[in-house]
Amino acid sequence: MTEIKAKVYAKTKDMQSLAKAFLSNDSVSVFNSPEYSVFPGFCDVHVHFREPGFSYKETMATGSLAAAAGGYTDVCTMPNLNPVPDCAEHLAEQTDIIKRDAVIGVHPYGAITVGQKGERLADLEGMAADVVAFSDDGRGVQDEGMMREAMQRANALGKLIVAHCEVNELLRGGYIHEGEYARRHGHKGICSESEWRQIERDLKLADETGCAYHVCHISTKESVQLIKEAKKSGVDVTCETAPHYLILNDMDLRECGRFKMNPPLRSEKDRMMLLEGVLDGTVDMIATDHAPHSAEEKSRGLEKSAFGIVGLETAFSVMYSKFVKHSTMSMDELLRLMVYNPRERFGLTVGDSFTVWSLDDVYDIDPEEFKSKGRATPFENERVFGRCVATVYNGKRVF
Asked: Which of 252, 258, 268, 364 could, after both became Cys, cross-link 376 (CB 3.0–4.6 A)?
């Protein structure tokens, strides 16, 4: 058998030993390359697995397998489900499915408000022991007093508030960025202020309450600047962005649902500021906002397609190809964004979990090969380097 060589990116000798033992096993002889890179399991703090309630879009089984196929061994699932996990009883419906069907570590969020409707706070105390944090992702909490109370209660419980920031009255029916592409093609735009204005409010509340606060999928240059200033002043804040916001801008849009997500692709100035924020540490982590929908829901063009794209199976490859291969960032910096920072902030350990990659494997992204039920990605047909060949979760090969 061909000798298998591997570079192991691991902080512990235990993981190095586990990875080398795995690679020496005959079961990997089917791999087509003698050289591999082994990484600690990636961690995504922002995914949608759609179950219970919307299994036609994704299931716990397909979503967690898609995550494993992308090198992830821990993910945090957002609460826009049916029933919404806003109390212990509703949360149990989700955790039962996780225990039954998940092939990796799946850590649910509890909702901030009942039904994610923003009218009254959910039973934060009743869910605290079984959730990773609290979020109303998909909707911004509009009432300032309600968000203040949520932060106070979460702080007392030692839990993060994780916010999708969006001022509803500033949306004005928009569905892509209020920028050059929208003007040229007659689309209704979403202004940047709809995002950063609520971040500005929440940062003041986090400072006031002492709550640990995390901002979802930031997309604007103003958001980066606000968070940078808040960190300097001592606010306990972290944030994430997604690969598509770092690689694409609104002029890359096509009249196709696979380019529609919320927040939308912004301007080139926004993209460059986000990248600067990643490199200077303002942006703490990469999350995918993996949000699968049915083919029909994504077939209605930019205006009428559902918001959301998939990303678990492409995130590392596109980040590695666009930034590490071009020396914009080092491999260690990328792992800090995809492994260490999210785990540290959300209290998730690596354990005996790792992922094996062939970094020299070159291919065109084909959504029909995805394990996810979702197929909508703006990176379709993109040529990338790096293919996941195995993922091990807690000592067990799951992909």
From this structure: 258
Do 42 and 316 contact (CB within 8 A), yes or no? yes
Question: Which tokens go with 106?
Answer: 């799946």
26 catalytic per annotation: no
Q: Which residues, given as ranges, of the chain have pLDDT below 50?
A: 1-2, 26, 29-30
Is residue 376 within 8 A of residue 257, CB to CB? The reply is: yes
Sign of CA dihedral 112, 46, 307, 98: negative
So what's the pLDDT on residue 249?
A: 98
Summarize pLDDT for 203-213 with one digit per residue, the tens. Answer: 999 999 999 99
**Residue at 122: amino acid letter:** A
CA 399 to centroid of chain Cα atoms: 20
pLDDT at 8: 83
Longest dimension (CA), the chain: 65
CB 282 within 8 A of CB 227: yes
Strand residues in the chain grouped as ranges (E): 5-8, 35-40, 42-47, 72-77, 105-108, 134-135, 161-163, 176-177, 189-190, 213-215, 237-241, 285-286, 354-364, 383-393, 396-397
Predicted confidence (pLDDT) per residue in 256-268, tens digit: 999 999 999 999 9
How far, rounded to the nearest angstrom, does the alpha carbon of residue 90 sit from its chain's CA centroid? 23
Pick from 397, 285, 356, 280: which is nearest to 10 by CA?
356
Which one is catalytic: 26, 202, 289, 332?
Answer: 289
Strands of the sheet containing 285-286, edge to edge, are 134-135, 161-163, 213-215, 237-241, 285-286
How far apart (Å, rounded) are the C-alpha atoms in residues 284 and 345?
Answer: 9
Cα angle 374, 307, 219; round to 5: 110
Helix, strand and coil content of the chain, in percent to the nearest 5, comes to: 40, 20, 40
Question: Which phi and psi (to 5°) does residue 276 adopt?
Answer: -60, -40
Token output for 94:
């989700």
